Structures are given as C-alpha cells and as structure tokens.
C-alpha cells in the first residue's frame, strides 16, 4: 500500500508536475492500472496524453477505486479549469510526467510496493537526497524549497541562525509566529543537538528542523503541523532534503564572503570620500541592489557593555539582523554594517518621508531602534547618533562624521539622550572643528584659577558644574549639593570674584558654560 506523498518521492515520479488535487496526497493505492484494466482495488490510473482517453477525465475522477491519475507522455496537454477544479474538490491527485512507457511506470510502482512490504522503503528515501541535490543545482534554493513545500503540502519558512525570517518566496513575514517559535525553542531545546524538534504554541504545533553542518549553524526551517498530516512521511522527505539545503546555504555563504570583501571596501570608500563620482557611486551600489539615486539618512550606533552584561561578547550580526527587521517593518530599505566598533546604518528615503518631516521621522525611527535593542539585548548600552541629510549621497562622509560627532559630544550634555541628531547638540558642535590646543588654552585661561584651587579645595569646580547643570537655579543646585542656598550664594560670589565674571551678564554665563563643555570634551 503506497500513498501519493511516498510515490512522488521516487524515480521517475519525483519529476511529476502536480496539476491539482494534492490535498489527497495521503490517499493510498494497491496498483497502477490502465483504463482497460479491472479497477477493483484502489488504483493509480495511468492515462496517456496522446489520443482521446483524457477526454474522459471527469468520469475517471468520479470512479470510486481511482485514487489519482497520472498523465504520461512527451506531449503537452492543457486541461480545462473545470477538470482541475473537480480534482481539487474531490481531492484526487492529478499528476503529469514526461515518461512515455506506461509499463516502466507500472514496474516502478510494483518495485516501490515490494520495498515497502519488505521494510526497505528507507532505501527510497536515501535516494531522494541525490534528487534534491540535483534539483538545487538546476533550480536554486528557491526552486528546491518551492518543490519541497508543494510535495508536503505546507508552506516552508526559513529562519537564519538568529531566528530571523529569510525571505525566499516573497511571502509576508509571520513575525508574531516567529517570536513565539523563538521563545518556545529557547525554553525547550536550545541546549540540545537534535536536528528535529516539535514545538507547541498554544493549540498550534510546529515542526522545526535545525540546518547545521559541523559547528556551523546555518539556520532553521519550520512548517506548521496540520490535522491529518502524514507526519512520518513528511519528516522523511524533509530530513533527506536537508543535506541539499545545507549544501546550497554553504555555497551561498561562500559567495557572500567573496562579495562581502568588495562590499566592505566600497562602503569604506563611501564613508571616507574615496569614490570618484556620483555615477560611479550609483553604478557600484547597483551591483548590490542599492539605489543611490534616492536620498539617504545616516545613523551610527555605538554599543557599550554594561556591568550587568552576561553575554560574553557582543554579537554584531545578531544586532544588525534585529535592526534590519525594525527598519524593514517601517517599509524602508537600508544598508547596515560594522566599522571601527560602530554599526553604521544608511537608510534610503521613502516617498512618504518628505523634506519637512524627514528629520523628525528619522529621529523617531532611531528611537524605535534604540527602544527595541535595549529591550532585546539587556546589559548593552546603545547610543545612536544621526548626521544631517546632504544634497548628494557623495557627501555621506560628512553625515558619517556628523553622526560620530553627535555621539561623542552627546556624552557631555547636561541631560543624557540615547538618540541625538547633529543639529541638536547645540554650541558643542561648533567646537568639534577647532584644534584641541586652542580649546585647551581657552578653558585654562577661563577656568584656570578655579582648577588650581580645586587641587586643594575640590568643591569650587563641582559647584560651578552643578550650577550650570541646573541652569543657574540656586535652589536646585543647593539641593543637589546638599548645602543651604545661602551657602551656595557665597560660593558663587567667591567663584565670580576668582574668575572675574558676573553671572548676571549673559556673555559671562556663555563664556563659563563653553569653557566647562570644552573641559569635559578634552577630558
């Protein structure tokens, strides 16, 4: 007794085209028969595409002992939508093969039945591995997965090693499904080395298969387990397709590594103004599918390990995958890559983002990225700097510089912000282009007496820094320093006398504020 899902896994039926009725893939047969044979037991009807026999398809589909029909021959045949719908409704598989000899097809069915009766059907499954390898070489990974999904009758989802969806068929990402699966996987089986797992999510059940070769994990594939599914047959088909899938993922990874070196050099040249012309930029970017005719916005992400971090080392690839899913969920394209310990994001504009609200939109997007990263990667402190958008993408190097300046100078702000745009860092951004020697001389000339005294009495410098942090508010400063407001007023008068300034004058306030910012920067 053979079911159709087993038949289609063996030669020559593995090349059969599934025309309709595949929901009946679990129907069983006891023989392969011609129209002239007695049809007294469950049968696969072999029907030639030549002649007029196929005109009786409707009658054959209604025959109680015909479980499915195999159209054979080298001819092309076009079936009416009515026949296809009938097969689909009844649930009787309708298949098409280019084999012309019906006796070879009958013999193949007989051989399969004998192998199964002798408990040797595993030999058939083992031979399917070679079929999947050949199919992968002919049709690529997408073609292989499409065929595999059609045979088992269920959509196959691919996940990378970080549990992010690999888009191979254009379907929408089942994001919530992925998150539930990930949580279930990490709770149940992450520490095990099994290839196959059954995961539960409420009433739903999923089959998850690990794609691993040696120490290298390439990802996972999963399908939903439906009621009535021939699970043992499905597992055999998936198991013997895995070597071919891993082989293709290996080849893909090798190609990506080769491309990656060229890609990294291109992106480095872009950020350091080493590209000859805008047309060169557009042409080179086009090789990787990047449209540099569109305006871009650049962000730089910095990661610092906090004291409560327990993850060993920071996995930049996992963080980049996480960022990519957030940005793409906002219908934007991006380039994300590590450089100099940072992660750089080049985000391509959407028509929905106009010049008027572009900055606000990008700052908001950066905020979403930061919030999600902080939640998903506890123990890592993230900061995001944004550069300005410039008229040409040839000026990405300016935006890169500005984003790094925003990150660096943001550390010296009175109120720390995890996301900071270059335009919002105030007077400190003017100081970024001045030589350190000049800045050092300025703050020494302005605060030198106070710094000298602080070596003996350290509360003067602390007092003035706290005073400016609290926007010259006497009561707030006194409260933070745990002193009486009158004591603070006396200190302020002493500081004014030492520095020869008057804090009632705006020019003097600005002078001291700038000197304090410079001192923090240079330290």
Describe this structure in words.
With 523 residues, the protein is α+β, with helices and mostly antiparallel strands. The chain folds into four domains: 2-120, HprK N-terminal domain-like (Udp-n-acetylmuramoylalanyl-d-glutamate--2,6- Diaminopimelate Ligase, Chain: A, domain 1); 140-252, Dynein light chain 2a, cytoplasmic (Beta-Lactamase, 2-Layer Sandwich), CATH 3.30.450.30; 278-431, Reverse transcriptase/Diguanylate cyclase domain (Alpha-Beta Plaits, 2-Layer Sandwich), CATH 3.30.70; 436-522, Orthogonal Bundle (Arc Repressor Mutant, subunit A). It is 48% helix and 17% strand. Helix 11 (396-410) links the parallel strand 16 (380-386) and strand 17. Helix 5 (122-152) packs across helix 7 (231-271) and helix 14 packs across helix 15 (474-481).
Q: Briefly, what is this?
A:
With 523 residues, the chain is an alpha+beta fold. It has helices spanning 4-7, 57-62, 81-90, 102-117, 122-152, 175-188, 231-271, 278-286, 316-329, 358-376, 396-410, 428-431, 436-454, 459-469, 474-481, 485-499, 506-522, and strands spanning 2-3, 17-20, 28-29, 31-33, 43-48, 66-72, 94-97, 157-159, 165-166, 196-201, 204-213, 216-224, 296-305, 334-339, 342-348, 380-386, 419-421. 48% of the residues lie in helices and 17% in strands.
């Amino acid at each position: 007794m053979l079911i159709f899902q087993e038949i289609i896994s063996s030669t020559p039926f593995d090349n059969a085209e599934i025309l309709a009725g595949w929901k009946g893939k679990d129907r069983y047969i006891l023989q392969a028969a011609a129209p002239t044979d007695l049809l007294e037991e469950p049968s696969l009807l072999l029907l030639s595409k030549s002649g007029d026999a196929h005109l009786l398809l409707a009658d054959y589909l209604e025959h109680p002992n015909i479980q499915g029909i195999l159209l054979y021959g080298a001819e092309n045949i076009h079936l009416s939508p009515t026949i296809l719908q009938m097969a689909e409704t009844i649930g009787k598989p309708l298949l098409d093969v280019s084999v012309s000899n019906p006796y070879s097809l009958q013999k193949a069915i007989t051989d399969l039945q004998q192998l199964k009766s002798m408990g040797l059907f595993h030999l058939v499954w083992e031979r399917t591995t070679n079929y999947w390898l050949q199919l992968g070489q002919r049709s690529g990974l997408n073609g292989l997965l499409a065929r595999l999904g059609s045979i088992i009758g269920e959509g196959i989802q691919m996940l990378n090693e970080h549990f992010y969806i690999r888009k191979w068929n254009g379907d929408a990402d089942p994001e919530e499904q992925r998150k539930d699966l990930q949580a279930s996987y990490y709770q149940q089986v992450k520490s095990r080395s099994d290839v196959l797992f059954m995961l539960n999510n409420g009433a739903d059940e999923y089959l998850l298969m690990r794609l691993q070769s040696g120490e290298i994990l390439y990802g996972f594939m999963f399908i939903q387990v439906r009621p009535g599914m021939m699970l043992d047959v499905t597992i055999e088909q998936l198991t013997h397709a895995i070597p071919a899938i891993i082989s293709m993922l290996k080849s893909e990874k090798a190609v990506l590594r080769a491309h990656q070196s060229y890609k990294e050099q291109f992106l480095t040249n872009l950020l350091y103004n080493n590209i000859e012309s805008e047309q060169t930029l557009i042409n080179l970017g086009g090789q990787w599918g990047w449209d540099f005719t569109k305006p871009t916005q650049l962000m730089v992400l910095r990661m610092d390990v906090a004291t409560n971090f327990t993850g060993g080392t920071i996995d930049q690839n996992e963080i980049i995958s996480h960022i990519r899913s957030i940005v793409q969920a906002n219908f934007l394209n991006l380039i994300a890559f590590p450089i100099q310990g940072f992660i750089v994001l080049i985000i391509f504009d959407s028509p929905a983002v106009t010049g008027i609200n572009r900055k606000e939109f990008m700052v908001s997007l950066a905020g979403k990225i930061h919030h999600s990263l902080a939640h998903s990667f506890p123990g890592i402190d993230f900061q995001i700097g944004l550069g300005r958008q410039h008229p040409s993408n040839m000026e990405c190097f300016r935006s890169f510089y500005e984003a790094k300046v925003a990150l660096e100078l943001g550390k010296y702000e009175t109120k720390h912000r995890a996301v900071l745009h270059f335009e919002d860092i105030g007077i400190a951004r003017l100081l970024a282009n001045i030589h350190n020697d000049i800045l050092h001389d300025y703050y020494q000339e302005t605060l030198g007496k106070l710094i000298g005294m602080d070596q003996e009495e350290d509360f003067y410098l602390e007092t003035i820094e706290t005073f400016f942090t609290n926007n010259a508010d006497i009561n707030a400063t006194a409260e933070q320093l745990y002193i009486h407001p009158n004591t603070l007023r006396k200190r302020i008068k002493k500081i004014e006398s030492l520095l020869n300034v008057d804090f009632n004058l705006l020019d003097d306030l600005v002078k001291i504020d700038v000197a304090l910012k410079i001192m923090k920067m240079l330290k």
